[in-house]
Each structure stands twice: as C-alpha cells, then as structure tokens.
Amino acid sequence: MLYVLIVCALIAADQALKYWTVSHLAVGQSAPLLPGIMRLTRLHNYGAAWSSLSGRTALLIAVTAALLVGVFVLLVRRIVRHPLGVAGCLLILGGGIGNIIDRIAHGYVVDMFDLELFTYPIFNLADCFVVVGAILGGVYYLFLYDKTDGKEKSHDQNPDGHK
Question: The whole model's pTM is what?
Fold first, then answer.
C-alpha cells in the first residue's frame, strides 16, 4: 500500500507541475525559475527523449507500458527488495505513468525544465523521476543485488556451481 501511495504522490507532483505550466505559459513561453540556471519553458514533445520517435504515440505508449509492467513485476514478485532498488522502481513507475497519462490524454508530453547553464533538451518532472530511478536501479543492480536480493548459492554446492 505504501508503494501505491508513493507512486500516486509522484504522479500527482508531475501532473500538478504540468497543469501549472499549461495554465500559466503559452507554448514556447518562458518564466524564470532559477535565474541563470533554469527557466520554465512550455514545450509539447510528440516523441520520446530528444523528440526521438516523434509522432509515434501509439508505439511510445506500448513500449512504455511494457517497460512499466516489467518494473511492476519486479516489485510485486519481490525480485527487488532492497530499499535502493525499490526506490528506483517506484520513481520509474511514477515518471513513466506520468508521461503515459500525457500521451494518452493529449498525444504529447508537456515539458518545461529549460536549462540555461548549457544547451540541453527541455524535460519534465516525470523525466527526472525516470532518470533518477534508472540511476538508482543501476547502482542497486551493479553493487547491491547479488549481496541482498540475488539467489543464494545452495550450501551443498562447490564454488564452481557443481554438487
């Protein structure tokens, strides 16, 4: 139940920021957020990252849904149990669902974070959740999975795996 509440809170935060952006800015219009660092600029992204697969909304929904089902299975079947791995999965679910809601409702994703420090594509809060979740998931898998959630070797096996 806690996991559901966390994912719902992530989705709500993403959707609230997107709603504010759509309510206060016209497409292409900007507002300062952190002067010299980041501004809010409303953009409609019809593709995935860096507008790849632009206009392929059905494909993007299908691929995202399949990936989200995979992450959901990792949690439900308790394949991932370590808090870092769970946090990564929850962030990916919240961000992925947040963006899927936009694609289904509008046919595009509302992006708003526009970095001023350097040139980088405009992105949204859901994208942040997915990226941070993927990084946490990678750290978890590379450094913690075998120690915490990986299958333990049977006590009657030699180190090389033979009985």
Answer: 0.87
